Amino acid sequence: MGEAVIVCLNGSNVEFEAGATVAGAVERVVEDSSRVAVEQNRAIVPRAAWNQTELTDGDVLEVVTLVGGG
Predict the structure, then answer these.
(1) What are the pLDDT digits (tens) for 9-36?
(2) Which of 4, 13, 22, 68 could bridge 50 with an S-S bond, Cβ 3.0-4.6 Å?
(3) Is pLDDT of 43 > 60?
(4) What is the pLDDT of residue 12?
(5) What phi and psi, each to the nearest 5 degrees, are found at residue 43?
(6) In the chain, count of helices (H) and strands (E)?
(7) Could you give the angle at the alpha carbon of 35 between the alpha carbons of 4 and 28, nearest 5°?
(8) Spatial distance between the Cα atoms of 19 and 61, rounded to a whole number of angstroms
(9) Where does the pLDDT of residue 63 fall: very low under 50, low under 70, confident under 90, or very high at 90 and above?
(10) What's the rounded Cα separation, in Å, for the pair 66 and 20?
(11) Domain boundary assignment for the chain
(12) DSSP code of 54?
């Protein structure tokens, strides 16, 4: 296996291969990402950047599902 990075994903340490992206992290958490928001190190990651935003060792990611209501 190649190099790995350890990321805190929704409060749990998870190992990813080097070069993994935010999109890959989202896939581990939810099946349908259409109503999901991602924060990387306390900054929102725009959906358009998920595939280009690489994870680095020690990142803290929060993947949250948006819920509508009224």
Answers:
(1) 999 999 999 999 999 999 999 999 999 9
(2) 22
(3) yes
(4) 97
(5) -125, 135
(6) 1, 5
(7) 25
(8) 15
(9) very high
(10) 24
(11) 4-65
(12) B
